[in-house]
From TrEMBL:
Name of the protein: Serine/threonine protein phosphatase PrpC
Top-level taxon in the UniProt lineage: Bacteria
Lineage: Bacteria, Bacillati, Bacillota, Bacilli, Bacillales
Length: 260
């Protein structure tokens, strides 16, 4: 019961509120969600993105999804995780070594289960899905599809790669489910965080696809972050640039800072 009392959760999808022609920036505890539903003038008429946040005493789980055709597949993934939130909390409240091993096993078991795949086959459309977990001084991710995860150092002087995951436009969860294939298409990883400030960003692929988007190159994302004074200003900068460019595809961001 104590773990549940320390847990915080938030879930949203574009059917609840679309944010068409609107940039929204909202805080949830120490995390920020940025949303832009797309420009109506340039053809946007619905938002098929979704996101989910769970937090505990020394961890965060963030999920970002971009669906096709309808938001149904993204909502299905979020609902499936929320139904299992007690198990997620119990897992992530364990010691760091055990938690990081078990969360990967938990997610693989869920996505590969016959029940999950049979239900997914009945939804309308498909969704990319990026799951990121920060526990103590480590960052884990499971990436299915074309969303992006960035770990942003405080200065451009750092030359290491800022994008953590590999993006694959062929991997989906839904009616066309990658886990129904002989060899599923996904990538996962885990890295230690640096001492000091660590800034984490999850974004749907719309950030990289709007006309003349400067954010196709991860170094430009890093540059925009360096010029911003805080995570919320950074997220707002990304979204207003997309709005000014007439982005049609919806964009959803989750960002936060952790000091190690």
């Amino acid at each position: 019961m104590e773990a549940l009392e320390q847990m915080y959760s938030y879930s949203w999808n574009g059917e609840v509120k679309s944010y068409l022609d609107q940039v929204d920036l909202s805080s949830y505890q120490h995390m920020w969600i940025g949303r832009f539903g797309g420009s109506i003038l340039h053809g946007a008429h619905k938002n098929e993105n979704a996101c989910l946040i769970l937090t505990g005493p020394d961890w965060e789980l963030a999920v970002i999804m971009g669906a096709q055709h309808t938001v149904e597949s993204a909502a299905f993934i979020a609902d499936s995780l929320m139904l299992r939130q007690r198990k997620i909390i119990e897992t992530l409240d364990e010691d760091t070594s055990s938690a990081m091993k078990k969360i990967d096993s938990f997610l693989m078991s869920m996505f590969n289960s016959v029940r999950f795949r049979s239900t997914a086959a009945k939804v309308n459309g498909n969704s990319s899905c990026l799951i990121s977990v920060r526990k103590a001084g480590y960052l884990y991710w499971l990436s299915i599809g074309d969303n992006a995860l960035f770990l942003l150092p405080p200065s451009e002087a750092h030359t290491s790669s800022v994008q953590m995951n590999q993006q694959h436009r062929s991997g989906w969860i839904g009616a066309d489910n990658t886990f129904d294939q002989e060899v599923p298409a996904y990538n996962m990883g885990i890295i230690p965080l640096s001492k000091g400030r660590n800034s984490i960003l999850l974004t749907t692929s719309g950030l990289q696809r709007f006309p003349v988007s400067p954010y196709k190159n991860p170094s430009r994302v890093q540059r925009a972050f360096t010029k911003s004074e805080s995570v919320p200003r950074f997220l707002h900068r990304l979204l207003t640039n997309a709005q000014s460019a007439g982005a049609v595809e919806s964009i959803t961001l989750i960002g936060w800072e952790i000091h190690i």
